[in-house]
Predict the structure of Antibiotic biosynthesis monooxygenase.
Amino acid sequence: MTVPVPPLTPPYHVVVFTSLLRAPDPAYEAMAQRMVALARDAPGFLGMDSARGTDGLGITVSYWTDEAAIAAWKADTRHLAAQRLGNADWYASYSLHVARVERAYSGPRDTETPAS
Amino acid sequence: MTVPVPPLTPPYHVVVFTSLLRAPDPAYEAMAQRMVALARDAPGFLGMDSARGTDGLGITVSYWTDEAAIAAWKADTRHLAAQRLGNADWYASYSLHVARVERAYSGPRDTETPAS
């Protein structure tokens, strides 16, 4: 699942959310898609990518203009409700990293956009 | 696929590598596993997680002590050969973000390790 990230000049921020599901659950997938739809409209949201393998390990990376935008999305009441459900019902474990992007490139043709 | 990341105190670095495969290829998977085995022994490597969904979108996040360790791993000759093959044969597209981790936590029980 992807919300395309436009070409951006660092610095901006990335949130890396890694989770292991206890068991596959269509209700989880529906909630995850609702959260993507909400995040798209959140101030400062730039784009995201998400993948989950057959072993249940999933990684979602989302890109944001700054830390304040990430904090506001974390505190969104609809997102908070989803976080509570995730903790209670869905996740065997998860980790979250907030990081400041310093450089980025894409390919097959290398196109680097170094920090300004 | 995971190489467990021990509890760490920021700052450290994360590399987010997102790729879309042209087509499933067992040779790609074998190469990817060889690269993980090599990266584990690379100086400054801290851990990684990797997931690929049925749509062909894969995300690998690897954690490193610093930028110098990331640059050295990028320049490893065995890794360079794999990058060339990826560009030529395997990837429809990819993007890579290098970012400095500012804070991290994990759950279900929230355990935050803020930057020192």
Summary: Chain A touches chain B at residues 1-2, 5, 13-14, 16, 18, 49-53, 55, 57-59, 61, 67, 87, 91, 93-108 (CB under 8 Å). The helical segments of chain A are 26-40, 67-75, 77-90. The mean pLDDT of chain A is 90. Chain A has one domain: 12-101.
